[in-house]
Amino acid sequence: MPPTPASPTTPACIVLIDAVADRLITQQLNSPDIPAAVEVVDVRSIDRRGRDIIEALRATRFAGGLVVISRSTTEDRVTLLDAGADHVLDPSRGVNELIAWIRSTTRRTQLDRRTHLLPEHLDRTLTLCTHTNTIVNNGLRAEVTETERKILAVLLRNHGNIVHRQHLLMVIWGITCESTTNILNAYIWSIRRKLDTIHAPSALQTIRGKGFVLTT
């Protein structure tokens, strides 16, 4: 029986919430009322970094919804919408309305993404198997961790295109910046080593100052 192809691990909707907003809002947005396909991310200052974050996500062909919750000015809201945000909402609208906007955005993007399913193979011979957490190339197998599998699935979705570091940090760990541990680099090194052990034809390249690209 052939391996089951990987399914997308990127969320259907990312909610960027300004860290200066009421902490109660963030807690409520992580409640069971929010669909599981939603990732809620605190951003230290959306006014200063929101545009860069949104453009980085859209540059990696992120097909999900982007909802920003911030007490932005009209000019800031226009900038964020032009960068690719679907909605920029003021937290004063109330949590129930914010959750309704998020559910609505998630429903739409989940329907849109049905036509953007991952291909079965990284290339003609290399396969990522979700049910066994393995990568297979011409009968050779290497086990990957759950985190490595998620990273590979995102790289696969963007095969041949640069995946920004910031994008991976958000969709895998829900953070917007790295500590001094450089944990992402450690995972990338491990994935490269495992691809080498099975003589995989795909190359995982580092694009200095940007991110990573998986090529054949």
User: Number of folding domains?
Assistant: 2
What structural class do the secondary elements suggest? Answer: alpha/beta
Determine the CATH superfamily of the largest domain: Response regulator
Enumerate how many helices there are, as a single number: 7
Mean pLDDT: 77
Q: Can you give the helix content as a percent range?
A: 25-40%
Low-confidence stretches: 1-8, 113-121
Shape: elongated
| CATH topology name of the largest domain | Rossmann fold
What's the CATH architecture name of the largest domain? 3-Layer(aba) Sandwich
Instruction: Tell me the Rg in angstroms.
Output: 18 Å
Question: Quick one: how many beta strands?
Answer: 10
Order of strands side by side in the largest beta sheet?
Answer: 2-1-3-4
Mind summarizing the main beta sheet? 4 strands, parallel
Order of helices and strands: EHEHEHEHEEEHEHHEE
Provide the CATH top-level class of the largest domain: Alpha Beta
The CA-CA distance between the termini, in Å, is 25 Å
Can you put this structure into words, describing what you see?
Residues 113-216 bind DNA. Residues 113-216 form the OmpR/PhoB-type domain. This is Winged helix-turn-helix domain-containing protein. With 216 residues, the chain is of the alpha/beta class. It folds into two domains: 13-115, Rossmann fold; 126-215, Orthogonal Bundle (Arc Repressor Mutant, subunit A). 39% of the residues lie in helices and 20% in strands. The chain is built from seven helices and ten strands. Strands 2-1-3-4 form a four-stranded parallel β-sheet, sandwiched between helices. A three-stranded antiparallel β-sheet has the order 5-6-7, covered by helices on one side. Helix 2 runs parallel beside helix 3 (74-83). Residues 1-8 and 113-121 have low confidence and may be disordered.
